[in-house]
Specification:
The protein has four domains: about 170 residues, Immunoglobulin-like; about 80 residues, Zincin-like (2-Layer Sandwich), CATH 3.30.2010; about 170 residues, Neutral Protease Domain 2 (Neutral Protease, domain 2); about 80 residues, Pdz3 Domain (Roll). The protein contains 16 helices and 30 strands. The protein is about 30% helix and about 25% strand. By secondary structure, it is of the alpha+beta class. Helix 5 packs antiparallel against helix 6, helix 9 packs antiparallel against helix 12 and helix 9 packs across helix 13. The structure holds zinc ion. The site of zinc ion (ZN) has 4 residues, from helix 5.
């Protein structure tokens, strides 16, 4: 029986913990770290932190993480720390010196406990950062808390001092009795447990005795929380069905911030999601949110517990390089949409549109022919999170390519095993083997061999280690499907032309969105614009002497034919320049996956089995 109770409140107190961890509030218990955060009344976007550390020597280094797990970018969180001071537990001021960008050294002078006070500014709202405002607060531990090497593994308690107006404190961390706050096993768990402070509804549900909570911060008239929770539950059920093992030890929190931000970040017992205020009223955007929920929840297994060896222990100060993000992120991206289909949250047609979108994104990225996905995984730190105008030409997303590799590999295994085996099985076997033993570069290949034989590894290797293109056409063919790359042809974006009409022409550029003029965001390698000498940030004023205006691109380019030579008039840093250009084919706006004419019943059966849905 399903129970749908709308209620607000602190997370369930775990009875056992209540008995064991009954520390007095004032004194710091031996062998633990305590952080108390509060918010000044006279300033927004500031967190006041008091941290208490047990010390073991005459000198202690206080360290601020430079990045947060799951988001592979150096963010230099110490840049937001100010007014830091240290004292002994008797209130004696201790000398403190900054010795590196992320490190302060304290002369602890035999003090038993070190008390540190500091401020953290929160200028950026994101799933990886912290944000303090009168409307709501999000605390991501890596961006707020200092640690010491000596105390990193010790239990950490967290107190969040708020007033009623700020709302309640929500986190997946177990609560301590009374007003004693929350407890983390160590610094890693503290960092892995985002905290929300808000007046916000929670929706609780259970599946097989496991409790889940959807927290909707910023819920408004466009969001139906009950419906969203019902849909999240379907995603939970489908994921649990997929993995067949529940690794959760306490309630899992979906912390959904309806604040116009986008993105998600995975944690052991929670995830932070950001979405738009009206996204639930737009089918396309709502599917994106469902897909995000499925993606982050899939990470509970794939990457939170089953991890590449390079990410097995969090190292917060320097980059942790791994060539396997195509597996951790890419295969999560393959399954996020697929599980929506199996959960009945999208129709087969909608699922195939999502798959076609991934294939389109991959095939319209020239960088896919430059670098293999293992290399772009390794370079996530200077690539995926720091894209620039040329990224499209020299890198490929390990999310997108990983998802497409997932699709062709899954299909390959189904095909050669006559549908007796599939990629799901590989993932489950990987999990059983590597949930507690991190995987190395050969682990996935070994499991693929066991499930599908050596030939499957020969099929997979070039997709990972070279720029060989995934053969999506023959994969689709096995299900009686085909990819139509041409029938929705258009100019650089937008226009649908007649199926048998002449192909539309294109400049070979990507335009910035939301600019008042037609400003080039990226020039595609090998296209007409590149040979003509167009550059990112150029504003295109006219093509062939005809004025180009925002919204008029398709109409204008539809009048030219691919291969025609003409001129393009641009403004470059205020200077008007005319260049000669040979037009190419327009980039199709999107691809479409359709049933092939004359498809067989056996193919439809394969399709139904793969998508977990009846095809009507
Ligand atoms: Zn992810």
């Amino acid at each position: 029986m399903k129970k749908w109770i709308r209620k607000t409140g602190r997370p369930t107190l775990l009875g056992a913990l209540a008995i064991v961890f009954c520390f007095p509030v004032a004194a710091l218990a031996a062998g633990e770290v305590r952080h108390t955060v509060s918010f000044p009344e006279d300033r927004e976007q500031v967190i006041l932190v008091r941290s208490e550390f047990p010390v073991d020597g005459a000198v202690t280094d206080l360290i601020m993480p430079n990045w947060t797990p799951g988001s592979y970018k150096i963010r230099n969180f110490a840049g937001n720390v100010s007014r830091i001071s240290a004292m002994s537990d008797e209130g004696r001021a201790l000398s403190l010196e900054k010795v590196a960008k992320d490190r302060w050294q304290v002369d602890t002078e035999q003090a038993g406990t070190l008390l540190v006070d500091y401020e953290v500014h929160t200028p950026e709202l994101g799933v990886q950062t912290s944000w303090v405002s009168s409307a709501f607060t999000l605390i991501n531990g890596a961006s707020v808390f200092l640690y010491t090497e000596y105390s990193r593994e010790l239990p950490h308690t967290l107190n969040v001092k708020t007033d009623k107006e700020q709302g309640e404190v929500f986190t997946a961390l177990p609560a301590l009795p009374g007003e004693a706050g929350f407890r983390a096993k160590g610094f890693d768990e503290l960092v892995d447990s985002p905290v929300a402070v808000a007046n916000a509804p929670t929706y609780r549900f259970t599946h097989k005795q496991q409790e889940y909570v959807l927290l909707n911060v910023g819920e408004n008239q466009f969001w139906d929380g009950q419906q969203a929770a019902r849909d999240v539950r379907k995603i939970v059920v489908e994921n649990q069905l997929f993995w067949r093992i529940n690794p959760l030890e306490r309630p899992f929190w979906f912390m959904n911030f309806i604040v116009e931000g986008r993105g998600g970040l995975e944690h052991d017992h929670s995830t932070v999601l950001m979405t738009g205020r009206r996204d639930m009223r737009d089918r396309d955007k709502y599917i994106k949110w469902l897909s995000l929920v499925a993606h982050e929840f899939f990470h509970v297994w794939n990457v939170r517990r089953m991890r590449p060896v390079e990410l097995s222990e969090s190292e917060y100060q320097v980059e942790q390089y791994t060539s396997q993000l195509w597996l951790a992120e890419g295969l999560s991206s393959y399954y996020d949409n697929l599980l929506l289909s199996r959960a009945g949250l999208v129709t087969p047609k909608e699922y195939l549109e999502l798959l076609a979108r991934d294939i389109h994104r991959l095939e319209t990225t020239p960088g896919r022919l430059v670098r293999p996905v293992t290399e772009t995984s390794f370079d996530a730190w200077i690539g995926q999170y720091q894209l620039n105008a040329n990224s499209i030409n020299n890198t490929v997303s390990y999310y997108t390519k990983g998802a497409v590799i997932g699709f062709v590999l899954d299909t390959y295994i189904r095909k050669v095993s006559k549908n007796r085996h599939n990629l799901d099985e590989v993932m489950r076997k990987m999990y059983r083997r590597h949930a507690s033993q991190p995987y190395d570069r050969d682990a996935f290949k070994n499991v693929v061999t066991e499930v599908a034989g050596d030939a499957a590894v020969e099929f997979l290797e070039p997709l990972l280690n070279t720029t060989a293109e995934p053969d999506v056409d023959s994969a689709l063919e096995w299900y009686g499907l085909k990819l139509d790359r041409k029938n929705i042809n258009a100019a650089d974006s937008g226009k649908t032309v007649e199926k048998n009409g002449p192909p539309a022409s294109g400049l070979g550029v990507v335009f910035e969105e939301g600019e008042p003029g037609m400003v080039i965001k990226a020039v595609l390698a090998g296209a007409g614009a590149a040979s003509a000498g167009l550059l990112p940030a150029d504003e295109v004023l006219a093509v062939g002497g005809e004025r180009l205006i925002p919204g008029g691109l398709d109409d204008l380019m539809g009048s030219f034919r691919p291969g025609e030579e003409t001129t393009v008039l641009i403004s470059r840093r205020g200077k008007i320049i005319e260049l000669n250009i040979t037009l190419g084919n327009a980039i199709p706006e999107r691809f479409e996956i359709v049933l092939k004419s004359g498809y067989k019943n056996s193919q439809v059966k394969r399709l139904q089995r793969w998508l977990g849905q009846e095809i009507k």
